[in-house]
Amino acid sequence: MTTSQDTTTGVAAPPAWKRRPANLGRAITAELVDRIVRGLHPPGSPLPPEPALCETFGVSRTVVREAVKILQEKGLVQVRQGTGTIVTAPTTWNMLDELVLAAAIAEDETLAILDDLVVTRRLLESDMANVAARLADQDTVKQLGSLVDLMDNLVGDHGRYAEHDRVFHDVIMQASGNRIARGVVKSLESQVFHTARYVGRTERALRIASNQGHRRVYERIAAHDPEGAAEAMFTHITDAWLVRRGGPGGPARLQR
């Protein structure tokens, strides 16, 4: 963690987060999450003791204890009487937590985390499309059709297209009435929508192909064809990710 230098005194200035006491606990938590996910504190190993962490970050024991408590809530550590604070296995980590997920994506060179995110989104949105095809009223169908037509005219504008793309999917999720599934999808995607790894390639031709997928989903919902809508959504999400994906390794995790 680098520090700047005070030009008037020549003394190194503390990190920005050290100058904001209200954010100390969150800043230290974020740093420790990053260190754990990167393997600097591997599973089964103890975190440095409180005095060492206090010295490292230049904070009180109260702040360190707050950070450790938050790490425990995220499933990254377990406090054991007489043993200390032990880093847990990745299988116990809360992958829906924004800090944990962001650190995991940043560290994962294989794109497996993003592949799993797409698989999860695909599963939930396919089911919601199935339900939406049964429940969608004429206003919803009309709105979806208007969005698809609008996006046909926005394929040359990546930013505006992406904005309406998200609206299209959200209309379907709302039509399904499944607030929990919608909340999970929106929580996951809110953390990756603007990351280069998830956005991937952005050529105009890819948006044209993507909107063809949207149109197939819309047509199946308009026809009140639940199975067809689910299949169209499954295919659309899979294909849209595969053409953007790039990166090392094959997308074996997406195969079904």
In short:
The two termini are 43 Å apart.
The count of DSSP E runs of length 2 or more, i.e. the number of strands, is 2
Helix content: 55-70%
Q: Averaging pLDDT over every residue, what do you get?
A: 89
CATH C-level of the largest domain: Mainly Alpha
Count of helical regions? 11
Span of the ends, CA to CA: 43 Å
Task: Please describe what this structure looks like.
The relative contact order is 0.11. Strand 1 (77-80) and strand 2 (84-87) form a beta hairpin. This protein is elongated. A two-stranded antiparallel ribbon has the order 1-2. The protein has 11 helices and 2 strands, in the order H-H-H-E-E-H-H-H-H-H-H-H-H. It has helices at residues 24-37, 50-57, 61-73, 98-107, 112-135, 138-152, 158-176, 179-190, 196-199, 204-222, 226-245, and strands at residues 77-80, 84-87. The chain has 256 residues and is mainly α. The chain has 2 domains: 16-89, Arc Repressor Mutant, subunit A (Orthogonal Bundle); 108-254, Four Helix Bundle (Hemerythrin (Met), subunit A), CATH 1.20.120. The two termini are 43 Å apart. The longest helix has 24 residues, at 112-135. Helix 2 (50-57) crosses helix 3.
